[in-house]
Specification:
Radius of gyration: 24 Å
Distance between the termini: 63 Å
Strand order of the largest sheet: 1-6-5-2-3-4
Number of helices: 17
Strand content: 15-25%
Length: 420
């Protein structure tokens, strides 16, 4: 089976697919040689990506690396999903202005189990090795840790942007934070990785792994970093997709555990331009298939909405199954395309008035979780995106008295609200 997959496509075709959406690739020629050798000898490459279980829930932005790992899997290569249970005890300092609080062993264990449940919605469980870096880092011991720390100087560590900024601004840098890149790099030595993947902000750590492998006399890993996924509200400006990164705090995310109808609806809310960006980064369709679909839309042979439905259904099916994807598409068509909002099955949110005769709409909306804050509520109201019982509410000073209301935010979010 593996042999068949390894020769499913030529090395050139594999290279084109696995590098799509890549921001930094070090070194392209080395990856081509590795793929050619794998094809010739029938030996799969070892593809590594590490995940510190510092949060239990994932959104689509977190799955970008998993999606790229899956593309390697589809060509028969070995994927190692590395859970950084040891390094999580340090806390990844990447991008942090302050020392990150390390997790306890119990927190790591709980979050790791949640990760495993979610990642196999993207990766093929039968073709994935799940490893924990405590396997070799626990055994490293004090002497091994000291020898590892001797490999890098403080000056080299301060070349890292986040360390450099914190040092310049006189912010604290704990000694143990310098160990993190070294331990992540040692993971690559232990696994003899051919390729390591990560986000763009992980480049320094990945390069450390490449250097340590050279020093150990191993063939150095190829490094592939990918983009950070823009949120649902991103738009095309001057030919580029512009917007904040996908984030729960900005309420512009799609959680992998969200209900199918909610996931589908959110993806249908994105612009057509952003749809193609998401297609490239998240879809399992090949580049040739995407090009054909895009040409069909541009020529008028296919409607942009149909392309968006196809994408939303693919992603929903990935996390909830084919039947759930089809049902979400059908429900969306009935409820929104045909203007049939199913008010009976909407959640009922009870908001206590605490003796007040009326409450501002800007205060009620965050209670429904349809918006993240009163500030966002005011912004949406000004844009005409808020309705109460079917009527637009644009006045930021509007208030509601006791009673039950149907509240809508945009075309896809709605809730029943009871004020009492």
């Amino acid at each position: 089976m593996t042999q068949d997959l390894l020769r499913k496509a030529t090395p050139e075709e594999q290279y084109e697919e696995v590098t799509r959406g890549t921001v930094d690739l070090q070194v392209p020629e080395e990856l081509k040689k590795k793929l050619e050798r794998s094809y010739r000898e029938g030996k799969p490459l070892t593809i590594k990506a590490g995940f510190d279980p510092n949060r239990p829930d994932l959104h689509l932005g977190h799955t970008l690396v998993l999606t790229r790992m899956r593309r390697f899997q589809e060509f028969g290569h070995t994927v190692v999903f590395l859970i950084g249970d040891f390094t999580a005890l340090i806390g990844d300092p990447t991008g942090k202005n302050v020392t990150r609080q390390p997790l306890t062993r119990e927190q790591v264990k709980v979050n790791a189990e949640t990760y495993k449940q979610q990642v196999f919605k993207v990766l093929d469980a039968e073709r994935t090795q799940v490893r924990f870096n405590s396997e070799w880092l626990d055994a490293l011991g004090a002497e091994g840790m000291i020898r590892l720390a001797a490999r890098y100087s403080v000056q080299r560590m301060l070349e890292r942007d986040d360390f450099k900024k914190r040092f310049r601004d006189n912010r604290s840098i704990a000694i143990h934070e310098f160990l993190y890149p070294l331990l992540q790099g040692y993971d690559s030595v232990a696994l003899k990785a051919d390729v390591e993947m990560g986000a763009t902000d992980q480049l320094f750590n990945l390069l450390v792994g490449r250097q340590l492998m050279k020093e150990q006399g191993l063939e150095p890993q190829v490094i592939m970093t990918g983009p950070i996924l823009e949120g649902l509200d991103a738009k095309r400006v001057d030919g580029k997709i512009v917007g904040e990164k996908m984030s729960k705090s900005l309420d512009n995310y799609v959680g992998v555990s969200e209900p199918p109808d909610q996931m589908f609806g959110k993806l249908m809310s994105i612009t057509d331009d952003l749809m193609w960006r998401y297609y490239e980064l998240l879809s399992s369709k090949s580049l040739k298939e995407l090009q054909a679909l895009r040409e069909a839309v541009q020529s008028g042979q296919a409607h942009p909405k149909a392309a968006k439905v196809g994408f939303a259904q693919e992603i929903t099916a990935r996390f909830h199954g084919e039947e759930a994807g089809r049902k979400a598409a059908a429900d969306f068509e009935a409820r929104f395309a045909k203007k049939e909002l199913d008010t009976e099955n909407l959640p009922l949110v009870e908001v206590a008035m605490a003796g007040a005769p009326k409450l501002p709409v800007t205060k009620v909306l965050p209670e429904t979780k349809l918006v993240a804050s009163a500030t966002e509520a005011r912004k949406l109201m000004a844009q005409g995106g808020v309705r109460v019982n079917g009527e637009k509410v644009t006045d930021p000073k509007a208030e509601l008295g006791p009673g039950e209301y149907l509240v809508q935010v945009g075309k896809l979010k709605a809730a029943r609200v009871k004020l009492a």
